[in-house]
Specification:
Elements: H1 15-20, E1 31-37, E2 44-46, E3 54-56, H2 58-71, E4 75-80, H3 98-108, E5 114-119, E6 132-134, E7 137-139, H4 140-157, E8 161-164, H5 171-181, E9 188-195, H6 202-207, H7 228-240, E10 244-248, H8 254-263, E11 268-272, H9 274-285, H10 291-305, E12 309-312, H11 315-322
Parallel strand pairs: 1-3, 1-4, 1-12, 4-5, 5-8, 8-9, 9-10, 10-11, 11-12
Antiparallel strand pairs: 2-3, 6-7
Helix pairs in contact: 2-3, 3-4, 4-5, 5-7, 7-8
Length: about 325
Protein backbone atom coordinates (compact mmCIF):
# COMPACT_ATOMS: atom_id res chain seq x y z
CA UNK A 1 0.00 0.00 0.00
CA UNK A 2 1.27 3.44 -0.90
CA UNK A 3 1.22 6.17 1.72
CA UNK A 4 1.33 9.96 1.04
CA UNK A 5 4.67 11.70 1.30
CA UNK A 6 3.09 15.09 1.85
CA UNK A 7 0.84 15.26 4.90
CA UNK A 8 -0.55 18.80 5.47
CA UNK A 9 -2.46 17.44 8.45
CA UNK A 10 0.81 17.27 10.39
CA UNK A 11 0.58 21.04 10.93
CA UNK A 12 -3.10 20.93 11.96
CA UNK A 13 -2.69 18.40 14.74
CA UNK A 14 -2.82 20.79 17.74
CA UNK A 15 -3.94 24.37 18.36
CA UNK A 16 -0.34 25.36 19.04
CA UNK A 17 0.73 24.05 15.63
CA UNK A 18 -2.25 25.63 13.88
CA UNK A 19 -1.48 28.95 15.52
CA UNK A 20 2.20 28.73 14.61
CA UNK A 21 1.52 28.46 10.87
CA UNK A 22 -1.65 30.57 10.67
CA UNK A 23 -1.48 32.88 7.65
CA UNK A 24 -4.08 35.46 8.71
CA UNK A 25 -4.10 36.54 12.34
CA UNK A 26 -7.21 38.36 13.51
CA UNK A 27 -6.53 41.30 15.82
CA UNK A 28 -8.64 44.06 17.34
CA UNK A 29 -5.76 46.46 16.64
CA UNK A 30 -6.91 46.75 13.03
CA UNK A 31 -10.58 47.38 13.85
CA UNK A 32 -12.71 50.51 14.08
CA UNK A 33 -15.88 50.61 16.18
CA UNK A 34 -18.84 52.53 14.68
CA UNK A 35 -20.99 54.55 17.11
CA UNK A 36 -24.23 56.56 16.90
CA UNK A 37 -24.48 59.89 18.70
CA UNK A 38 -27.83 61.56 19.44
CA UNK A 39 -28.91 64.76 21.22
CA UNK A 40 -29.35 65.16 24.96
CA UNK A 41 -27.51 63.86 28.01
CA UNK A 42 -27.49 60.49 29.74
CA UNK A 43 -29.23 58.98 26.70
CA UNK A 44 -28.41 55.35 25.90
CA UNK A 45 -31.01 53.54 23.80
CA UNK A 46 -30.37 50.16 22.25
CA UNK A 47 -31.05 49.78 18.54
CA UNK A 48 -33.71 47.06 18.35
CA UNK A 49 -32.32 45.50 15.17
CA UNK A 50 -28.69 45.68 16.35
CA UNK A 51 -28.33 44.03 19.79
CA UNK A 52 -25.50 45.58 21.79
CA UNK A 53 -25.41 48.77 19.69
CA UNK A 54 -26.79 52.03 21.10
CA UNK A 55 -27.87 55.53 20.15
CA UNK A 56 -26.11 57.65 22.77
CA UNK A 57 -25.72 61.27 23.79
CA UNK A 58 -22.21 62.78 23.67
CA UNK A 59 -21.55 62.16 27.39
CA UNK A 60 -22.45 58.49 27.05
CA UNK A 61 -20.40 58.20 23.85
CA UNK A 62 -17.38 59.40 25.80
CA UNK A 63 -18.01 56.80 28.50
CA UNK A 64 -18.25 53.93 26.02
CA UNK A 65 -15.11 55.24 24.32
CA UNK A 66 -13.27 54.69 27.60
CA UNK A 67 -14.22 51.04 27.33
CA UNK A 68 -13.21 50.91 23.65
CA UNK A 69 -9.80 52.36 24.44
CA UNK A 70 -9.29 50.01 27.40
CA UNK A 71 -10.04 47.02 25.20
CA UNK A 72 -7.31 48.02 22.74
CA UNK A 73 -9.54 48.96 19.82
CA UNK A 74 -7.65 51.88 18.23
CA UNK A 75 -10.47 54.03 16.89
CA UNK A 76 -14.14 54.81 16.46
CA UNK A 77 -16.37 56.08 13.67
CA UNK A 78 -19.08 58.59 14.62
CA UNK A 79 -22.50 58.88 12.96
CA UNK A 80 -24.87 61.65 14.01
CA UNK A 81 -28.60 61.79 14.71
CA UNK A 82 -29.33 65.55 14.78
CA UNK A 83 -31.85 67.56 16.78
CA UNK A 84 -33.39 68.91 13.57
CA UNK A 85 -33.46 68.07 9.87
CA UNK A 86 -34.04 70.17 6.77
CA UNK A 87 -33.74 69.75 2.98
CA UNK A 88 -30.04 70.71 2.96
CA UNK A 89 -28.82 69.03 6.12
CA UNK A 90 -27.58 72.32 7.51
CA UNK A 91 -27.37 71.07 11.11
CA UNK A 92 -24.48 68.86 10.00
CA UNK A 93 -22.11 71.83 9.77
CA UNK A 94 -22.95 73.41 13.15
CA UNK A 95 -20.16 73.69 15.69
CA UNK A 96 -22.78 72.59 18.24
CA UNK A 97 -23.91 69.57 16.20
CA UNK A 98 -24.15 66.17 17.86
CA UNK A 99 -21.02 64.76 16.22
CA UNK A 100 -19.03 67.91 16.97
CA UNK A 101 -20.09 67.76 20.64
CA UNK A 102 -19.23 64.07 20.83
CA UNK A 103 -15.74 64.75 19.47
CA UNK A 104 -15.30 67.46 22.09
CA UNK A 105 -16.42 65.09 24.87
CA UNK A 106 -14.00 62.41 23.71
CA UNK A 107 -11.13 64.90 23.56
CA UNK A 108 -11.90 66.24 27.03
CA UNK A 109 -11.78 62.67 28.32
CA UNK A 110 -8.15 62.46 27.11
CA UNK A 111 -8.68 59.12 25.42
CA UNK A 112 -6.04 57.60 23.18
CA UNK A 113 -8.42 56.94 20.30
CA UNK A 114 -8.46 57.74 16.61
CA UNK A 115 -11.67 59.67 15.97
CA UNK A 116 -13.14 59.21 12.48
CA UNK A 117 -16.31 60.97 11.41
CA UNK A 118 -18.81 59.99 8.75
CA UNK A 119 -19.37 62.84 6.28
CA UNK A 120 -22.76 62.59 4.60
CA UNK A 121 -26.15 64.30 4.57
CA UNK A 122 -28.55 61.34 4.84
CA UNK A 123 -28.85 61.56 8.65
CA UNK A 124 -29.42 65.33 8.51
CA UNK A 125 -31.86 65.80 5.62
CA UNK A 126 -35.61 65.54 6.08
CA UNK A 127 -35.82 63.51 2.87
CA UNK A 128 -33.11 61.03 3.92
CA UNK A 129 -30.98 61.25 0.80
CA UNK A 130 -27.22 61.82 0.83
CA UNK A 131 -27.39 65.09 -1.09
CA UNK A 132 -29.48 68.11 -1.92
CA UNK A 133 -32.65 67.41 -3.93
CA UNK A 134 -33.26 69.38 -7.13
CA UNK A 135 -36.39 68.60 -9.18
CA UNK A 136 -36.65 65.16 -7.60
CA UNK A 137 -33.02 64.17 -8.19
CA UNK A 138 -29.97 64.22 -5.91
CA UNK A 139 -27.96 67.20 -7.13
CA UNK A 140 -24.28 66.24 -7.15
CA UNK A 141 -22.52 69.59 -7.46
CA UNK A 142 -24.86 71.49 -5.15
CA UNK A 143 -24.09 68.93 -2.43
CA UNK A 144 -20.30 69.26 -2.54
CA UNK A 145 -19.94 72.59 -0.67
CA UNK A 146 -22.10 71.31 2.21
CA UNK A 147 -20.05 68.13 2.52
CA UNK A 148 -16.86 70.18 2.52
CA UNK A 149 -18.19 72.45 5.27
CA UNK A 150 -19.29 69.42 7.31
CA UNK A 151 -15.82 67.90 7.05
CA UNK A 152 -14.27 71.24 8.07
CA UNK A 153 -16.53 71.45 11.13
CA UNK A 154 -15.46 67.95 12.17
CA UNK A 155 -11.80 68.87 11.76
CA UNK A 156 -12.28 72.01 13.84
CA UNK A 157 -13.95 69.92 16.55
CA UNK A 158 -10.92 67.62 16.70
CA UNK A 159 -11.50 64.71 14.33
CA UNK A 160 -8.41 62.85 13.14
CA UNK A 161 -9.95 61.49 9.93
CA UNK A 162 -13.03 62.42 7.90
CA UNK A 163 -14.82 59.71 5.92
CA UNK A 164 -17.15 60.86 3.13
CA UNK A 165 -19.78 58.18 2.49
CA UNK A 166 -22.20 60.09 0.24
CA UNK A 167 -20.88 58.82 -3.12
CA UNK A 168 -21.15 62.21 -4.81
CA UNK A 169 -18.67 62.61 -7.67
CA UNK A 170 -15.83 64.98 -6.77
CA UNK A 171 -16.50 65.15 -3.05
CA UNK A 172 -13.00 64.08 -2.03
CA UNK A 173 -11.45 66.95 -4.01
CA UNK A 174 -13.92 69.43 -2.53
CA UNK A 175 -13.18 68.26 1.01
CA UNK A 176 -9.42 68.18 0.51
CA UNK A 177 -9.44 71.70 -0.89
CA UNK A 178 -11.57 73.01 1.98
CA UNK A 179 -9.44 71.36 4.67
CA UNK A 180 -6.18 72.57 3.15
CA UNK A 181 -7.55 76.10 2.71
CA UNK A 182 -8.23 76.26 6.47
CA UNK A 183 -4.89 74.80 7.60
CA UNK A 184 -6.08 71.24 8.17
CA UNK A 185 -3.69 69.64 5.71
CA UNK A 186 -2.87 66.92 8.26
CA UNK A 187 -6.45 65.67 8.52
CA UNK A 188 -6.70 62.43 6.55
CA UNK A 189 -9.55 61.41 4.26
CA UNK A 190 -10.86 57.85 4.46
CA UNK A 191 -13.12 57.67 1.43
CA UNK A 192 -16.03 55.31 0.96
CA UNK A 193 -14.76 54.80 -2.56
CA UNK A 194 -16.62 51.58 -3.40
CA UNK A 195 -19.95 51.84 -1.60
CA UNK A 196 -22.60 49.59 -3.03
CA UNK A 197 -26.38 50.07 -3.00
CA UNK A 198 -27.00 47.13 -0.71
CA UNK A 199 -29.81 45.40 1.15
CA UNK A 200 -27.40 44.80 4.03
CA UNK A 201 -27.86 48.38 5.31
CA UNK A 202 -31.35 47.82 6.74
CA UNK A 203 -30.54 47.87 10.50
CA UNK A 204 -28.25 50.90 10.06
CA UNK A 205 -31.16 52.96 8.79
CA UNK A 206 -32.90 52.39 12.11
CA UNK A 207 -29.71 53.16 14.05
CA UNK A 208 -28.99 56.38 12.12
CA UNK A 209 -32.62 57.30 11.31
CA UNK A 210 -31.52 57.75 7.71
CA UNK A 211 -33.96 55.87 5.48
CA UNK A 212 -34.81 57.81 2.29
CA UNK A 213 -38.36 59.17 2.29
CA UNK A 214 -38.77 58.48 -1.41
CA UNK A 215 -37.02 56.40 -4.06
CA UNK A 216 -33.71 54.77 -3.29
CA UNK A 217 -29.97 55.42 -3.64
CA UNK A 218 -29.29 53.45 -6.79
CA UNK A 219 -28.48 56.59 -8.80
CA UNK A 220 -25.41 57.37 -6.69
CA UNK A 221 -24.37 54.22 -4.82
CA UNK A 222 -22.75 51.46 -6.84
CA UNK A 223 -24.56 48.61 -8.59
CA UNK A 224 -23.83 45.28 -6.82
CA UNK A 225 -23.03 43.63 -10.14
CA UNK A 226 -20.03 45.86 -10.86
CA UNK A 227 -16.49 45.07 -9.73
CA UNK A 228 -14.37 46.81 -12.39
CA UNK A 229 -16.21 50.04 -11.65
CA UNK A 230 -14.98 49.84 -8.06
CA UNK A 231 -11.41 50.17 -9.30
CA UNK A 232 -12.40 53.27 -11.25
CA UNK A 233 -14.07 54.80 -8.19
CA UNK A 234 -11.03 54.09 -6.02
CA UNK A 235 -8.64 55.53 -8.64
CA UNK A 236 -10.70 58.73 -8.89
CA UNK A 237 -10.83 59.22 -5.12
CA UNK A 238 -7.09 58.67 -4.74
CA UNK A 239 -6.45 61.12 -7.56
CA UNK A 240 -8.58 63.67 -5.71
CA UNK A 241 -6.61 63.26 -2.49
CA UNK A 242 -8.02 60.33 -0.50
CA UNK A 243 -5.48 58.78 1.86
CA UNK A 244 -7.37 55.52 2.44
CA UNK A 245 -10.41 53.86 0.90
CA UNK A 246 -13.35 51.74 2.08
CA UNK A 247 -15.18 48.90 0.39
CA UNK A 248 -18.74 48.63 1.74
CA UNK A 249 -20.34 46.17 2.49
CA UNK A 250 -17.64 43.60 3.19
CA UNK A 251 -18.95 40.05 3.33
CA UNK A 252 -20.69 39.95 -0.06
CA UNK A 253 -17.84 41.94 -1.67
CA UNK A 254 -14.72 40.03 -0.66
CA UNK A 255 -13.74 39.82 -4.33
CA UNK A 256 -13.86 43.62 -4.57
CA UNK A 257 -11.70 43.99 -1.47
CA UNK A 258 -9.14 41.68 -3.09
CA UNK A 259 -9.23 43.55 -6.40
CA UNK A 260 -8.71 46.89 -4.67
CA UNK A 261 -5.92 45.46 -2.49
CA UNK A 262 -4.10 44.08 -5.54
CA UNK A 263 -4.50 47.24 -7.62
CA UNK A 264 -3.63 50.01 -5.14
CA UNK A 265 -0.83 50.49 -2.64
CA UNK A 266 -2.86 52.36 -0.02
CA UNK A 267 -4.56 51.26 3.20
CA UNK A 268 -7.80 49.45 2.35
CA UNK A 269 -10.69 49.33 4.81
CA UNK A 270 -13.81 47.19 4.67
CA UNK A 271 -17.08 47.88 6.47
CA UNK A 272 -18.67 44.81 8.10
CA UNK A 273 -22.08 46.47 7.94
CA UNK A 274 -25.19 46.39 10.11
CA UNK A 275 -26.99 43.63 8.23
CA UNK A 276 -23.95 41.37 8.39
CA UNK A 277 -23.75 41.98 12.15
CA UNK A 278 -27.46 41.59 12.85
CA UNK A 279 -27.78 38.33 10.92
CA UNK A 280 -25.14 36.72 13.13
CA UNK A 281 -26.66 38.16 16.31
CA UNK A 282 -30.16 36.95 15.39
CA UNK A 283 -29.03 33.46 14.43
CA UNK A 284 -26.95 33.16 17.59
CA UNK A 285 -29.88 34.23 19.77
CA UNK A 286 -31.93 31.46 18.17
CA UNK A 287 -29.20 28.93 18.87
CA UNK A 288 -28.61 28.33 15.17
CA UNK A 289 -24.90 29.09 15.23
CA UNK A 290 -21.97 29.90 17.50
CA UNK A 291 -21.69 33.71 17.49
CA UNK A 292 -18.03 33.91 18.44
CA UNK A 293 -16.94 31.27 15.95
CA UNK A 294 -18.94 32.70 13.04
CA UNK A 295 -18.12 36.36 13.74
CA UNK A 296 -14.39 35.69 13.96
CA UNK A 297 -14.55 33.54 10.83
CA UNK A 298 -16.24 36.35 8.90
CA UNK A 299 -13.79 38.96 10.13
CA UNK A 300 -10.84 36.71 9.34
CA UNK A 301 -12.21 36.28 5.81
CA UNK A 302 -12.47 40.06 5.39
CA UNK A 303 -8.87 40.48 6.52
CA UNK A 304 -7.74 37.52 4.41
CA UNK A 305 -9.35 39.12 1.35
CA UNK A 306 -7.01 42.08 1.78
CA UNK A 307 -8.53 44.54 4.24
CA UNK A 308 -5.98 46.33 6.40
CA UNK A 309 -8.73 47.91 8.51
CA UNK A 310 -12.18 46.55 9.37
CA UNK A 311 -15.03 48.71 10.59
CA UNK A 312 -17.21 46.39 12.65
CA UNK A 313 -19.79 46.43 15.42
CA UNK A 314 -18.08 43.28 16.68
CA UNK A 315 -14.88 45.21 17.53
CA UNK A 316 -15.40 45.20 21.29
CA UNK A 317 -16.48 41.57 21.31
CA UNK A 318 -13.44 40.54 19.30
CA UNK A 319 -11.14 42.43 21.65
CA UNK A 320 -12.61 40.50 24.58
CA UNK A 321 -12.54 37.16 22.76
CA UNK A 322 -8.89 37.57 21.79
CA UNK A 323 -7.71 38.88 25.15
CA UNK A 324 -5.07 36.62 26.75
Amino acid sequence: MSFPTHRPRRLRRTEALRGLVRETRLTAASMIYPMFVCPGSKVRQEVSSMPGVFQQSPDQIAEECREVATLGVPGIMLFGLPESKDPRGTSSISAQGVVQRAIDAIRKANLDLIVITDVCLCEYTDHGHCGVIDHGDVANDATLPILAEQALSHARAGADIVAPSDMMDGRVAAIREKLDEHNFANIAILSYAAKYCSGFYGPFREAADSAPQFGDRRSYQMDPGNAREALKEVALDLEEGADMVIVKPALAYLDVIRRVRDAFDVPVAAYNVSGEYSMVKAAARNGWLDERRVATEILTAIQRAGADITLTYFAKDVARWLAP
